[in-house]
Amino acid sequence: MVTSLMALHRKESDMYEAADREHAIWNFQVPPQVPDESEVKETVSCDVLVAGAGVGGLTAACRLKELGFDPLVCEKSGNYSGRGGHFGVPNSSLMKKYGIVNDLKEVARQWIAISGNDIDQELLWTFLRRSEEAMDWLLPIAEADGLQPRLVDCIYRSAPYREFYGAHSFPATGYIRGAFAPKALYKYGTEKGVSFRFNTPVTQLIKDESGRVCGAYAKGPEGIIKILAKRGVVLATGDIGGDEEMCRAYAPDALRTLSSQYIPVGCNTGDGHKMALWAGAVMAEEVFPIMMHPQHFAWCNLFFLFVNKYGKRFMNEDSYVQGRATSIMRQPDGVCYSILAGDYAEHMEESLKYGGGIFWGNAGLRYGDGWSKDQTVASVEKAIKDGFAVKADTLEELAELIDVDKAQFFKTVEEYNGYCCRKDDEAFGKRPELLFPLEKGPFVAMKIGTTLLEVVGGVQIDCSMRALGKDRKPIPGLYVIGDTSGGMYGHEYVTTILGNSHGRAVTWGYLAAETIAAE
Ligand SMILES: Cc1cc2nc3c(=O)[nH]c(=O)nc-3n(C[C@H](O)[C@H](O)[C@H](O)COP(=O)(O)OP(=O)(O)OC[C@H]3O[C@@H](n4cnc5c(N)ncnc54)[C@H](O)[C@@H]3O)c2cc1C
User: Fold this and answer.
1) Ligand 1 centroid from CA 493, angstroms
2) Which residue in 337, 345, 383, 498 is deepest, having the highest Cβ count within 10 Å?
3) Packing angle, helices 180-192 and 55-66, rounded to 10
4) What is the pLDDT of residue 512?
5) Are 297 and 447 in contact (CB under 8 A)?
6) Are 436 and 354 in contact (CB under 8 A)?
7) 3-class secondary structure for 254-313?
8) What pLDDT, on a 0 to 100 scale, did the predictor assign at position 175?
9) Cβ of 166: how many Cβ atoms within 10 Å?
10) What per-residue confidence (pLDDT) applies to 19?
């Protein structure tokens, strides 16, 4: 099967629909041969098969067990998985302790606007309304494993990119690892008797004569396993970022980032997306949005002056994380330099009243602790130590140390300083409160490039996590959650509440279990 230019230009709807062997445009649309019974090494039975032991799959399995079912979790890698550190929901009991209650209508309006309306608003409202219950379910599970859930104080504060509090972190004795909450879920699940099989990717769904999904094949260390699942299958296999062809089809920008930081490396090949397609599900209609961060080189960007390798400024640096990542990705080589003057730290605290958010403010700052200058300075110094930033006494010396057109760089700085002195950014309209001339040394240039975290689009689901077919009716027995599902994000990953991708995975896992119990 080849992908031709003609194919690329075929009707968009063709791409999003399931295709059979004859009509497939892409290789991934072609279903594999069903294994012969003689190839099956083992047949096992369970109530529900959960494919994937990430945040979503673990939540679904634990909740299913609580509700009296016998779930089997099959995981492709050798362990449960987790990453990052923020779990975002608009409200929770923890937030109430801090006196924070978000107005869901306000959050929804901001979310929809930043998504360019390209989302399923019913799904968004399901997340906004039901995530509090899911988070309140997770919090005691995390605490029972010794974690100390906290609220994160790192948001962009103004229109048009306004972000709301709601990112929860799960540190243990002061530090955070993304896998801490999944570890707590895994521990809780195993204690309750959830069965896990690792190094066992699920490969293909099985339907009965009525068309109901009633199990799947998986590839265990000993060979093919046939899994019969009385109540159906939950696909929680993560995103498509590790499958180049799927990215070309659904999320071409994912291929423009300088790296991927997904772990477990190579496991996010859209297996659940493919299995759902082969079973007749359709993909959500938006171009799949990507979650990318400007953290390929230095992790800290701040908001002063950005220049590309031609020494040119290219954006209003006063933007939120995805906005900055998108603009930087479009620069030659996908790289820019963030330039700081010797007095940068003095302007930071003041700036957080207007902007902020991750890569500007401090992503680890806990609500109530107050901003610390030391932490910002430490992250700049770390970038220098790691070889992603350079420091020099003069701009001339700085320009010698970076890959930049020097003449244009000096011209850009001179123009920028002029805007700062006049408090009028005629070039890109940065707010006067955020304009500080680059005059005092030593100067720092931090190299910035974008990395792909996840592609957050997927299978079209309804508000009960049921996969939908071409007729937009649920496929019986098939549930899709987390990054394998779509509909929540339009053209980019939304940070209206930081960490909401984890928040979605937990909420969707929780709701899938409730749906199965109710059916
Ligand atoms: C470096 C990094 C940092 C991040 N930080 C944050 C953050 O702070 N906040 C946030 O909200 N989001 C963050 N994310 C994104 C977040 O991790 C995901 O959106 C979220 O974990 C999705 O959960 P999931 O359960 O859908 O998928 P995953 O957590 O990706 O889990 C999917 C699991 O399925 C397994 N699998 C794949 N194929 C198969 C198969 N065929 N059979 C069985 N198992 C299979 C995979 O090995 C994996 O364990 C980050 C991502 C990265 C890469």
Assistant:
1) 14
2) 498
3) 30
4) 98
5) yes
6) no
7) HHHCCEECCCCCCCCCCHHHHHHHHCCECECCCCCCEEEECCCCCCCCCCCEEECCCCCC
8) 58
9) 28
10) 61
Q: What CA–CA distance (Å, rounded) separates 322 from 452?
A: 11
Long-range contacts formed by 221-226: CB under 8 A, 24+ apart:
222/41, 222/42, 223/39, 223/40, 223/41, 223/42, 224/35, 224/39, 224/40, 224/41, 225/40, 225/41, 225/42, 225/43, 225/44, 225/197, 225/200, 226/35, 226/40, 226/42, 226/43, 226/44
Chain-centre distance of CA 118, in angstroms?
17
What is the C-alpha separation between 369 and 508, in angstroms, rounded?
A: 32
Residue 370, pLDDT score = 87
User: How many angstroms separate the Cα of 186 from the Cα of each of 71, 73, 104, 478?
Assistant: 13, 11, 31, 23
Which residues form the pocket of ligand 1, taking CB atoms under 6 Å from any ligand atom? 51-57, 74-77, 81, 83-86, 88, 178, 201-202, 236-238, 261-262, 264, 267-268, 271, 291, 453-454, 482-484, 499-502, 505
Longest dimension (CA), the chain: 79
**What are the CA-CA distances from residue 151 to residues 87, 131, 142, 167 (Å)?**
9, 15, 14, 6
Asked if 282 and 486 touch (Cβ cutoff 8 Å), the reply is no
Instruction: Provide, rounded to the nearest whole percent, the portion of the chain with pLDDT above 90.
Output: 89
Buried b (16+ CB within 10 A) or exposed e, 254-280: beebbebbbebeebbbbbbbbbbbbbb
pLDDT score of 25:
83
C-alpha 41 to ligand 1 mean position (Å): 29
Residue nearest to atom 6 of ligand 1 (CA): 84
Neighbours of 245 (CB within 10 A): 16
To which residue do tokens 């959960």 refer?
50
pLDDT given at position 286 = 77
Place of tokens 């003449």: 407
For residue 152, CA distances in Å to 370, 436, 504 come to 11, 28, 17
**Single pTM value for the model:** 0.95
Which ligand 1 atom is nearest residue 453's CA? 53
- Token pair 């397609």: residue: 277
Calculate how far, in angstroms, residue 54's C-alpha sits from the geometric centre of ligand 1. Answer: 6
Amino acid at 106: E
**Which of 62, 72, 74, 75 is the pocket-test mutation for ligand 1 (most atoms within 8 Å of CB)?**
75
* pLDDT for res 372: 87
The atom of ligand 1 lying closest to the CA of 201 is: 42
CB of 518 within 8 A of CB of 128?
Answer: no
**Strand ranges of the sheet holding 150-151, from the earlier edge strand across to the other edge:** 87-88, 167-169, 150-151
Contact 277, 485 (CB under 8 A): no
Task: Mark the ranges of the chain whose per-residue pLDDT is less than 50.
Answer: 1-14
